[in-house]
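Task: fold both queries, return tokens.
Query 1:
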Amino acid sequence: MDTASESPGASSRRRALVTGASSGIGAAAAAALAAGGCDVWLTYARDEQGAAATADEVRRHGAEAHVSRLDLGDAGAIERLLDEVAGRWGELNVLVNNGGVCPYTPADEISVAEWDAVLETNARGTFLALRGALPLLRAAAGDRSVVNVSSVAGELGGVATSVHYAASKAAILAITRSYARLLAAEGIRVNAVAPGPVRSGITGKLSDEAAAGLTGATPLGRFGQPHEVASAIALLASPAAGFTTGATYDVNGGVRIDG
């Protein structure tokens, strides 16, 4: 599923790694980054066909595309992926931590095993991918950027979503702010986007009643589209946002408005 092999450092295009890119926000982000001049390495957890379709869209923008299966709950798998990226590219300009899980389980029914699985995949997976990618980001010239995909649930708490999902997304915001401080002196920027209700495989699991309730609670009166979040990701990942780090970009239709 890869394009032709290329030696590290040979490309004049920027290089981006996007996790969870077989559909939804991740797929839209991969396409937006490709349109903006990035080669893209994308990962998927289960939907190989969706990942292949995303890679085709990336290539339609004239970009190089690579596809790898990744279980973000498996620390060894994250390390192996980054070793593979290092061997092929040797550097990264952009890391988008988008992959994650969102079970809709009532709080009093969440088992210890499910709690751990959600936090390990969403929060620990983001941390390990970011920390593990640092040598690749440090090896790249010019603007380097990490964009972590959180959620309005991480800011307000779970409403339609579950407690463990909200907790994991709040942790991602703390990881973002911590690494923004740690890496600022090196010129590596770390920001987050916090989507509200967006059409995706995750929100597709909602009942009609729950989806209608979310729509009614959104001031703009609709669900967002993946490309609307991807536009924010692409902006934060680009040199155009070169003075922005430690920020959370809300893309939520007005669900959360700070005064």
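Query 1 returned. Query 2:
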Amino acid sequence: MSAERSRWLQCLGLPATADAIAIKTAYRQLARQWHPDCNPDPQATARFQEIQIAYERLLVLQESATAQPVPQAPPADAALIALKRQFQPQLQDLLADGRWAKAIALTEALQQRLPDDWEVRQWLAICYLRQGQALLVQQQRQQAIAYFEKARRTDPHNPRLQQEIQASHRLASARRA
């Protein structure tokens, strides 16, 4: 166990073996006891803030310990890696020219050969997203939303992509209204 976790557990008066339920229970009890509105003690505000910080830090430590790692692709053979590197500039040109359908077709073909490659999966999700955005500009809202969903399912571990998809969804909803 880390020294940081021990320190925050000690602040809440808990043993090193405390689980999430014990942490939450202790936090609630101490927060009620030391809340400045309920406790006239001049140290109540400082103690209450310390309790809050301890609880928040323990939550962060718990979340980071239980976070699922992004799946890694198994090593591919040299020929497939060379194919992927050869494909990358061609894909960049298609994306720069706004040729989304062609970019999607080529990336889907590459993904069939490298189904577990996270980078190819990311490229495909970006192609789907850009196609959806282009369809949105063309007032084809339903098709755009379908491509946004494809992008979301293709690369679910990419938070930046998910944010961009949500922003595009909001734009699609706003155009509908």
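Both queries returned. Flag for query 2: The chain has a mean pLDDT of 85.
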